[in-house]
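FAQ: What does the model actually see?

It sees only this:
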Amino acid sequence: MIILTGGAGFIGSCFLARLNSQGIDDIIVVDNLDDSGKERNLLGKRFSDYIPKDKFLELLEHGRLPKPRHIIHMGACSSTLVTDRDYLMSNNYEYSRRLAAWAFEHHLPFLYASSAATYGDGSFGYDDSDENTLRLKPLNLYGESKHLFDLWVLKNGYGAQATGLKFFNVFGPNEYHKKEMMSVICRRFDELKNGQPMRLFKSYLPQYKDGEQKRDFIYVKDAVEVIWYFYENHQACGIFNLGTGVARSWNDLARAMFLALKIQPKIEYIEMPAAIRDKYQYFTQASMAKLRACGCRHKFSTLEEAIADYATYLDSKTYI
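And it is asked to produce this:
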């Protein structure tokens, strides 16, 4: 039996589909089915039970669930806009710590989602070595909550028992419920299809022209294949970047969307909200050496390939 937290969420539900594709359905899905519509991510998928996240830990810690053979912890609040520190610390840090402590006590493989938000403004680069992780300074509370858990893992000597994945800018099917946190690709697709321009944030740093801010965009299908690699090779422990290793600009992303739609590019640059200007990441690019050194050889889609594939889902909002 596998425990999959966040199993109704974006990445979690895509990985649930991957497990199902391998004939694996003895899975307890843990999540919070709010009014966002993410329950649709579970349609057509096979799992043995669903447990609300608020009840799950008590059941687990009191021995009222069968012992799993693997815990995959994708559940978290991933909004960078949340300003309630207590909520993020409870939901993202304390919950993860309790679940991980239980897994380590029972000698179980524990794979969890970290985030590239832990890298902050990139002053220390994007090296996923333990030494670099220890000195990072996130820009927002979400990144801070993820970073604190990474630090807890490392400082308590659990780096050889856990596998953490620092997800960069993941996009793809099943993100439709994420509202303001869905990718620009998902949020703007229908607008572009209907002839509206792509609106991108202006740059407020002289070294970056408007739209030339760069991110490491990764398609969810590629992210899922890397999770699958670590699921099958759970002895490969540590904290790893999960991007593509190639930074692309927002202008590149916009042009790829217009290409997929077979429409002439039309881009406008708009003011960035003042509230996020000092917390904005102008450049992210995953260092991939550590991932490759552990044996993962997955070939990532290009941005153009990924957006072309995603467009086939966005036309009718279909799911993986």
